[in-house]
Write a structure and sequence with these properties.
Layout lengths: L2 H27 L1 H23 L5 H16 L6 H8 L1 H11 L9 H9 L4 H11 L2 H32 L7 H17 L1 H20 L12 H16 L9 H15 L4
Helix pairs in contact: 1-2, 1-9, 2-3, 4-8, 5-8, 7-11, 8-9, 8-10, 10-12
Length: about 270
């Protein structure tokens, strides 16, 4: 499945479907079944993609699966008011813990994201990637990228909490409650996703700029992932010969970093 198709399905099933189920499924299904269906359909999609469609088990998919399981479990915590607002914001808190805290403790998880995005397919390339990622400039960029993603999720979670407290005021297991939750989802699944996507793109761009800045010169044209490995091999050869292995111009670095970051969203 292409990244662009996967992104489209994620938006339709993860964002649009819950709103439609709550809005138009409460009357025929009942308040509690409609609420559970709206909460569990996106979870089922994530797990279906993980175990059946893509069947790729790495940090990104494992984190996505764990987050989905957490949301699925929390769906059966029948609360309203401030507790519901906290429950609805829990996934943002998890993201802050995973990304934000690892920026200061241990290895930032953005390192795993970079490894999976570039996908070294041989032990030699994997070793070359680890040596590149161990460079102080790259490691620093990984930490800043992780912190950016973590803080963005923390702020989004705070906004999500406030919106829920103000808008979801009806008792749980009522038609009005389902309608209010649908209204909140219609707002937050768009308003809060945009800054998150921008933060992710900027974080990816930051990481890739740090990596490409340490690679030797190539043409000014936009590069693909295959050229990355060619340049990385040239860097290794230059370092073995006593050079520093880097000579890409700033403009070439920017072009390649943006292209690589766009590739993470399937828009190349």
């Amino acid at each position: 499945m292409s990244k662009s198709l996967k992104l489209t399905l994620d938006i339709l099933i993860g964002a649009a479907a819950p709103v439609l189920i709550l809005k138009y499924g409460t009357a025929p299904l009942g308040t509690l079944p409609a609420y559970l269906a709206a909460a569990l359909v996106p979870v089922a999609w994530v797990l279906l993609d993980l175990f059946v469609i893509s069947r790729r088990f790495n940090f990104i998919t494992t984190y996505g699966g764990a987050s989905a399981i957490m949301r699925g479990a929390l769906a059966f915590w029948y609360v309203d008011g401030a507790l519901f607002a906290f429950k609805d914001s829990a996934s943002y808190l998890l993201a802050f813990v995973v990304f934000g805290l690892t920026a200061f403790i241990g290895t930032p998880v953005t390192r795993s994201i970079a490894l999976q995005g570039l996908d070294p397919d041989t032990p030699e390339r994997e070793g070359q990637m680890h040596r590149l990622l161990d460079e102080p400039a790259v490691h620093g960029a990984m930490r800043r990228a992780a912190l950016l993603i973590g803080v963005t999720n923390l702020l989004a979670g705070a906004v999500n909490y406030v919106i829920n407290v103000q808008m979801v005021t009806a008792p749980f297991n009522t038609a009005v409650f389902n309608d209010q939750v649908a209204n909140v989802n219609a707002i937050t699944r768009i308003v809060l996703v945009l800054p998150d996507m921008l933060a992710l793109f900027y974080a990816f761009n930051l990481m890739y700029k740090a990596m490409y800045a340490l690679l030797p010169g190539g043409s000014e044209k936009e590069a693909d992932s295959a050229e990355f490995w060619t340049l990385l091999e040239q860097r290794e050869a230059a370092l073995a010969g006593g050079g520093d292995g880097s000579s890409l111009s700033n403009s070439a670095v920017d072009v390649r970093a943006r292209k690589q970051a766009r590739g993470e969203f399937g828009i190349n």
